[in-house]
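The pair is set out directly below:
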Amino acid sequence: MGHSQLEKQKTHERIVTLAAKRLREVGLEGIGVADLMKEAGLTVGGFYKHFASRDELVAEAVQVAVESWRRQLEEKGIDPADISLENYADDYLSTRHRDQRGDGCAYAALTADIARSGDAVRAIATEGIRRNIASMTARMPQPDTADARRNAIIASCLMTGALGLARVANDEEFSREILEAAKSFAKELATDDGK
C-alpha cells in the first residue's frame, strides 16, 4: 500500500472512530457531516473521498461502536472470554460507564436509534447482539444448556436496559440504585441456581 493510500486509510479510520464516539454521545440523527469533518480537522468536501453517503458512515461507525469493548480489551492483551460475569457486571454497570457515553456500550446509547435505522445498520447491530449473547452464554454455569442461553439473554437485556435507565435518571442516588440492583441480579444469574 502506497503512502497516500495508507494516509487515506488512517484518515478514514479516524473519521469512523470519531463518528462512533459522537453517535454514542448524541444519537444517530444528532451528528452532522459538517460538524464531524470540522472536528476531524477536514473539509466537508473531503467526506466524499471516504464515504458514498452519510448512511455508509453511520453503518461503519455503528460497527466500530458495537465492537469497541472487545477491541479495547484485545489491544490490552485480554481475551474478552476470560472475563467472568461478575467482573463484566461490575465494569458494565459502573458509574464510570454510565458517565462515559461516547466510549461505552452502543446498545445502551443507541437502542432506539438503531431500531429506527435502515437494514444495514440493524444487520450490524443484530450480529453484535448475537456475539454478545454467545459470549454471555459462555460466562454462565453449564454454558451448553438452554438455561445458560436464556440467562445470558436476560443478563444482556437487564444490563443494557439498566445502564440506559441509570443514564436517564437525574437523581444520582436513584441512578446508582438502578445500577446496583441490576448488578446484583446479573451476578445471581451466574450461579447454578440463578434460574
